Amino acid sequence: MAVSYAGPGKVEVIDTPYPEFELKDGPGVNPANIGRKAHHGVILRTIATNICGSDQHMVRGRTTAPEGLVLGHEITGEVVEVGRDVEFLKVGDVVSVPFNISCGRCRNCKARQTGICLNVNPDRPGLAYGYVDMGGWVGGQAEYVLVPYADWNALKFPDRDQAMEKILDLTMLSDIFPTGFHGVVGAGVTVGSTVYVAGAGPVGIAAATSALLLGAATVIVADLNADRLAQARSFGCETVDVSLGDPQDQIEQPRHPRTLCHR
């Protein structure tokens, strides 16, 4: 069973076949990928998955997502079957799966540019699970999912029992947390930095958390949602309520040490 896009504003739970180590035809699947073997993959039983804002864009009809597309690119699961070419994973392992699919072998992957892998999508560099115009690989909001190039694409948690105790937190590792972390690393945040995060949604909160982990001296988070701003303040951020005026003007004014502007 899986969650699929059924048209603007609609999703439905559908019956899906158990995955094989071969890409089958389906909504959005590139014809050149049909029949592509994936003996380098594993089949996971999905333990936990997230709903991304990108999924919401598709469901709301803002994209060219085809009806019937199985959604989901934030996957945490248990290995239930291992392809013949997999070396380092075994049945029973609990793993986190990055949202983008990459081969780990092309020049882009070797340069750590896995989001634009050259070998996984015949149309253009880059591929993702259950995502519009990204090759049509079956998504992870399903009972079972095939993960290709598993030795590269599946991050094994070293202690299964410990992982299961924190599984809802660890689910953030597939997309949300690394997106925020990558953003602040790319921005050059380091010890002593002053950081401004525009937006206190899940990725914004992950970016603010990451900035503090990297040693930022001050992290300012801006939003207009009071609950989100309160969440940012709960772990040490200063906040700006953008509904009350220009963020720059508010930041320049001396305020409460933990809150630059509040209701």
Can you characterise this structure?
- The structure is a single chain.
- Strand 8, helix 7 and strand 9 form a beta-alpha-beta unit.
- The chain is globular.
- The chain has 2 domains: 2-174, Quinone Oxidoreductase, Chain A, domain 1, CATH 3.90.180.10; 177-252, 3-Layer(aba) Sandwich (Rossmann fold), CATH 3.40.50.
- The model is unreliable at 256-263 (pLDDT under 50).
- With 263 residues, it is of the alpha+beta class.
- The protein has helices at 53-59, 107-110, 150-153, 160-165, 167-170, 176-186, 202-213, 226-234, 247-252, and strands at 2-5, 11-14, 42-49, 75-82, 94-97, 144-147, 155-156, 194-198, 218-223, 238-241.
- The chain is built from 9 helices and 10 strands.
- The longest helix is centred in the C-terminal third of the chain and has 12 residues, at 202-213.
- The N and C termini lie far apart (45 Å).
- The chain has a 5-stranded antiparallel sheet with strand order 6-3-4-5-7. A 3-stranded parallel sheet has the order 8-9-10. A two-stranded antiparallel sheet has the order 1-2.
- Residues 183-242 form the Alanine dehydrogenase/pyridine nucleotide transhydrogenase NAD(H)-binding domain.
- This is Glutathione-independent formaldehyde dehydrogenase.
- Its cofactor is Zn(2+).
